[in-house]
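Comment on both lines for my students:
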Amino acid sequence: GDRKEDKYLSFYYDNKGALHCGCSAEPHYGTIHLSKKVCPGHHCTPDYPILDFDEKKKQCFCRHHPCWDDKGVAHSCTDPKFPILRYREDVEASGKVKSVCECLAPMSAPHGEL
């Protein structure tokens, strides 16, 4: 990403485990464990941005963001200070799993470190 719009860090690991970093117009949130250890060589597109693993089929795939249709609600992050939409699950005391969609700040290096 050499375009001005490409202001968010993106990354993936290739089949040999080497890290590839770049810039993207879309903010991204992903786990190193899934990207490096479980699904090396896979990276997703803005339409299907979430890298996941199907336990039954034993294969990696890209999915729609679960917060785009959270029981009929389409979540988005409009504050430029918190542009990254993240999905997580909380387990309540009763054992019920609660879906949580939240907006995160982008990762950035302290000034002078890049």
